[in-house]
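Bench notes, afternoon.
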Amino acid sequence: MGGFTVAIGPILAVVVGIFVSWALGEIDKHYSITDQVITGLDELSKNTTDYIENQKREIMNAANDIVEPVIDYSIASAQRIIVNLAIEYFRKLTSPSPRLQ
């Protein structure tokens, strides 16, 4: 009789498991829990993607704010150098003193 009692335990566990599985399936159908979880995860994924894109834009804007004045200064410096060289060469070319080559 002891062997029979041990065999009932696993069978009872399977029956209870099947019943619980069915009950949870019915509850899920009634309340649409799975659909709500999927919708929530999709929204979370979209929000995360939007946040990351926004952060990338902010970083790029900050980098532009830093780099733009440096580029402007470099261009202005190059313009001054070119103008000064042009003036110097113009003076050399138009000076009345003899030129040695």
